[in-house]
Amino acid sequence: MPQQPVVKRSTYCLLMLFWIALHDRSKTFGQGLDIACNDSLATVEPKQCPRNKAERDVAAAKKNCGSLKNTCRSFEYHCVINEWMNGTIDVCAPSMIIQKGKCAEFSTGFKSIRINFLTDCKKYDPPCPESYNSTEAYKYDGCYDMAILTPLPTTTFQMTTASGATVMENSSLTTVRGGNDIPKESEANVSIILIVVVIVIFVIVVIIASVIIFKMKRRRRSSYGDANESEEEREAL
Fold it and tell me: What does the pLDDT look like over 21-52, one tens digit per residue?
């Protein structure tokens, strides 16, 4: 009986590792997408965030997220930094686990609480743990201080008066510290880029898997053919 070719374990291991990496990266790219909530947008307000449980409970009672009509998975009080890291906001939104010792933010583009990967909350005092619930952001107020101290981006405009004099004027891109005046086009572009990246990685995995399967089948057919020829030669003798 002809023996079937044995596929090297390294091929399976490589494919498995690649799939695990893809799965982990997909979760990173898509974190927050599964809890997107349109109703959260109407509750966004620039606010100074509470810095202890007593203040947090008072703010949560005043916001009263539970009484607001919504279609979200959950509707919980949060006070976090905005996605531009130049202010803080309170909002009613589904909670999520913030991982990797980062700060929690609310993204108006993704309509959800998200992990801000540009922050390193482990260096703040008190430091963020490896993971925590987003509703407990008040425990790690170093994130708030970082957002308050972040300078607002400015753009310089050159204007010429009627007399011909040139005037340079600086204008802030964000009009209110802690506000929500951000370009929606940027958030939309980020969403599209992340989706495209995930799709491209998935296609690459499918192509690699297809090539491996094709080579396995061709090797198996070749092995069967060699075995049949050997058997015919023995019968001829």
Answer: 555 544 544 455 568 999 999 999 999 999 99
Residue type at 113? I
pLDDT in tens, 179-194: 444 444 444 455 567 6
37 with 86, same domain: the answer is yes
- Domain shared by 52 and 127, yes or no: yes
80 CB-near residues (< 8 Å, 6+ apart): 49, 88, 89, 91, 103, 104, 105, 106, 113, 134, 137, 143
Distance separating the N- and C-terminal Cα atoms of the chain: 18
pTM of the model: 0.58
Measured CA to CA, the distance from residue 112 to residue 33 in angstroms comes to 7
Range of the domain at 106: 32-182
Cβ neighbours of 15 (radius 10 Å): 14
